[in-house]
């Protein structure tokens, strides 16, 4: 059965009309000074890096530290993707307060690589610095609702963020995977199912507490360290410093968020994608949708989404649609976030991303997926409130895009190389540019421009100011020239 294009477009017309361990055992020495609001204290540079590895024994007196061979080390270094289980940090600092991060950064700076881990979802495993110092932020996971704002520790997971906010009747647009950390999500932008209505997660950031490369604890906001604040809103996790907490403004939680799923008959993928690309940019911001193409013969297609409103309103929007099996369910805010969350079990996968900046040739995308079972191409819609912000207003560049594209393949140790090659073939076949830094890919050509567009130059200047010695350097770090 072939989907009739006009049926989908009729649906589109109706839509428009209707309107994403412990605590440290001893106190460290007097912490490095904190920058005062409204000031900027660039770190000093050093000509010669210090010699030798960090003094782990001395650091262990200040911070709860795990070294290879210690009980709990192997489990503490694990991240979401088992593909990175072979990476071996020289030490893991289990941080429970900003002073722990300061002590750890001061001890290891310019001696070994340093990387922070919040949720552990780095697609390239960058939060597990092989031979370096991992800063485990899991001990800083508080979620404190303060009226219309919420203060969230950098180690908090989305499942806990949503539970606390939902219980307080407040809303923060964010991602869907329950074990994703708030830190990486926010620093890369924060695409989610409420983005068209409320914007990106980073758009709600009021301030952040940040330990920079010189060991200072700074407050970044519109009035304090404004360039750093700009960079933290979409400039990518791992760059510029280690955020210890975020303060966000929130919105009242919507009383109803109605979720929906549309399943299409075999052979309709081209028509679905073509119509989706025309429909979503004109849809009301209350409506969010993605389109998922599943590899195989034929390529499968489905559309899922949600509407900030009740089921009756959504059904009116969907009433002109024919040719798909429709499921509609009205939930509250917290229920909708749980609906999209799925499992937080570890998953072995290979993935990359591109940006749908303008309508693509559907046949080009679907042909690249033919016969590739276990691989999905997911297009998450943007527009609405995301596009209402200028690309240069924050570090997140892809404000005017139709959507982000994720190419995702299941992979286990036996077929990982095959899956990697297959993802590369699809990426080359679909012919799209750009990329979303939260789906970071070491193989992405010209990744700096792909992730950050024209904002890359300004980001490099921020790195020059706050990390001139490349203390937080990794393979795809934003660094000074």
UniProtKB/TrEMBL annotation:
Does the record carry Manganese as a key word? no
Alphabetical list of PROSITE patterns matching this protein: FAD_PCMH, PROKAR_LIPOPROTEIN, TAT
Decide whether keyword Signal is in the record: yes
Q: Which cofactor does it need?
A: FAD
Key words of the record: FAD, Flavoprotein, Oxidoreductase, Signal
**Which Gene3D superfamilies has this protein been placed in?**
3.30.465.10, 3.40.462.20, Uridine Diphospho-n-acetylenolpyruvylglucosamine Reductase, domain 2
The record's section on InterPro entries has: BBE, FAD-bd_PCMH, FAD-bd_PCMH-like_sf, FAD-bd_PCMH_sub1, FAD-bd_PCMH_sub2, FAD-linked_Oxidoreductase, Oxid_FAD_bind_N, TAT_signal
Give the signal peptide, or none. 1-26
Q: Which residues form the FAD-binding PCMH-type domain?
A: 84-253
Q: Quote one Gene Ontology molecular function term.
A: oxidoreductase activity
Domain of life where this protein originates: Bacteria
UniProt region (Disordered), positions on chain: 26-54
Q: Where is the composition biased (Low complexity)?
A: 35-49
Could you say which protein family the record assigns here? Answer: Belongs to the oxygen-dependent FAD-linked oxidoreductase family.
- NCBIfam families, A to Z: TAT_signal_seq
Quote the protein name from its UniProt record.
FAD-binding dehydrogenase
Name its species: Amycolatopsis regifaucium
């Amino acid at each position: 059965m072939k989907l009739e294009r006009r049926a989908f477009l009729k649906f589109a017309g109706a839509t428009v009309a209707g309107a994403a361990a412990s605590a440290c055992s001893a106190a460290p020495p007097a912490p490095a000074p904190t920058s005062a609001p409204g000031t900027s204290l660039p770190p000093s540079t050093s000509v010669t890096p210090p010699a030798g590895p960090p003094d782990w024994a001395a650091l262990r007196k200040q911070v709860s530290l795990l070294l290879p061979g210690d009980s709990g080390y192997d489990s503490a270094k694990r991240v979401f993707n088992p593909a990175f289980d072979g990476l071996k940090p020289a030490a893991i600092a289990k941080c429970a307060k900003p002073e722990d991060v300061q002590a750890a950064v001061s001890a290891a700076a310019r001696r070994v690589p340093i990387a922070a881990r919040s949720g552990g979802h780095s697609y390239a495993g960058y939060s597990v610095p092989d031979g370096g110092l991992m800063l485990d932020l899991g001990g800083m996971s508080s979620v404190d609702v303060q009226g219309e704002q919420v203060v969230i520790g950098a180690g908090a997971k989305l499942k806990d963020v949503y539970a606390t906010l939902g219980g307080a009747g407040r809303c923060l647009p964010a991602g869907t995977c329950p074990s994703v950390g708030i830190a990486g999500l926010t620093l890369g932008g924060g695409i989610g199912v409420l983005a068209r209505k409320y914007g990106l997660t980073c758009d709600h950031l009021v301030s952040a507490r940040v330990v920079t490369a010189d060991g200072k604890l700074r407050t970044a906001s519109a009035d304090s360290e404004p360039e750093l604040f700009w960079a933290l809103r979409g400039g990518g996790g791992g760059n510029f410093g280690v955020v210890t907490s975020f303060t966000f403004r929130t919105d009242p939680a919507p009383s109803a968020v109605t979720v929906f799923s549309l399943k299409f008959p075999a052979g309709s993928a081209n028509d679905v994608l073509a119509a989706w690309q025309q429909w979503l940019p004109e849809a009301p911001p209350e409506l969010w949708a993605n389109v998922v193409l599943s590899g195989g013969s034929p390529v499968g297609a489905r559309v899922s989404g949600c509407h900030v409103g009740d089921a009756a309103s959504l059904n009116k929007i969907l009433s002109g649609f024919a040719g798909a099996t429709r499921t509609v369910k009205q939930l509250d805010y917290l229920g909708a976030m749980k609906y999209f969350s799925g499992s937080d079990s570890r998953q072995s996968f290979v993935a990359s991303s591109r940006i749908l900046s303008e309508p693509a040739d559907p046949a080009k995308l679907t042909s690249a997926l033919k016969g590739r079972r276990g691989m999905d191409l997911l297009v998450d819609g943007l527009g609405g409130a995301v596009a209402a912000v200028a690309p240069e207003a924050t570090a997140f560049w892809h404000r005017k895009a139709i959507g982000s594209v994720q190419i995702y393949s299941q992979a286990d140790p036996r077929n990982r190389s095959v899956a990697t090659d297959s993802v590369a073939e699809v990426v080359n076949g679909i012919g799209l540019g750009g990329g979303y830094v939260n789906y970071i890919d070491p193989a992405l050509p010209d990744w700096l421009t792909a992730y950050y567009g024209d904002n890359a130059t300004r980001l490099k200047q921020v790195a020059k100011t706050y990390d001139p010695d490349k203390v937080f350097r990794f393979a795809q770090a934003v660094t000074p020239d």
